[in-house]
């Protein structure tokens, strides 16, 4: 089971009773999902079943956490493709509550996760991919120490236009400088 990780304003925790209802109430904000690389016309509506599947996916993932602030579910953060031999993983974060955007909560969640990744998990490298048009996420990653390492040109087709994928990375000795 995933352990609970705490920061000053956010808690990263395993799913609990009530999370299905909370995720259902948040819905799928079209502007947020567009930054995830989903065209506006393709954003699905949230049903109770899809909210339950979302929570179950976090339960089944060995390195995924609900992001919570002030006892409210904001989103999810996870480490994917964790490779113990090479001591690396990729990270993904999704804030689904529009009211939580732009308040530093996502950056804090990233920092809390990085402390766990570079601390107890003893990872050496964390990578992220982000759409070039998602400047809010790029600022958050830079704030946490990530640097741009490359660009996959015209890798995502969103709303009838091509967008680059920006690859960013952070090494353990760079974290917290």
From TrEMBL:
<protein>
    <submittedName>
        <fullName>GNAT family protein</fullName>
        <ecNumber>2.-.-.-</ecNumber>
    </submittedName>
</protein>
<dbReference type="InterPro" id="IPR016181">
    <property type="entry name" value="Acyl_CoA_acyltransferase"/>
</dbReference>
<dbReference type="Pfam" id="PF13302">
    <property type="entry name" value="Acetyltransf_3"/>
</dbReference>
<feature type="domain" description="N-acetyltransferase">
    <location>
        <begin position="22"/>
        <end position="173"/>
    </location>
</feature>
<dbReference type="InterPro" id="IPR000182">
    <property type="entry name" value="GNAT_dom"/>
</dbReference>
<dbReference type="GO" id="GO:0016747">
    <property type="term" value="F:acyltransferase activity, transferring groups other than amino-acyl groups"/>
</dbReference>
<keyword id="KW-0808">Transferase</keyword>
